[in-house]
Amino acid sequence: MPDTVLDVDFCRSFFPPLSNGEVYFENAGGSYAPRQVIDTLTAFMGECQCQPGWQFASSRSARARLDRAQALMAEAINADYDEIVIGPIHHAQCVRAGSRAGAPAGTGLRDRRHQPGSRGQRRRLAALGRHWRDGP
Description:
Blueprint: H1 8-12, H2 35-47, H3 57-76, E1 104-106, H4 118-127, E2 131-133
Parallel strand pairs: 1-2
């Protein structure tokens, strides 16, 4: 097998903040989104940022984009589509693909029962045979 060399410049080209030659290693400041994610979010926010699932055109487009994101995430981590839950950021930690049925879905914060949108997340977890665990 021939020697393979990593093209660092090619890899860095996917991350616009690295174009200035600096790298930041400070908590989340060191986590960069690739250009493709930035472009996708920019398109979403510019074309159909609304509540998905309604019958007007931009809402249908938003739902289709979220469904595609869910399918791509499932494919990326070799999970089933219904093992991935995409919801508001405060619910992002509630489901982990591949955990056994009935295992608690930790939220990382004290009490999510009163968070907006938690009812839908609780229903989705219950449908997966999971339950919601409040607490740290």
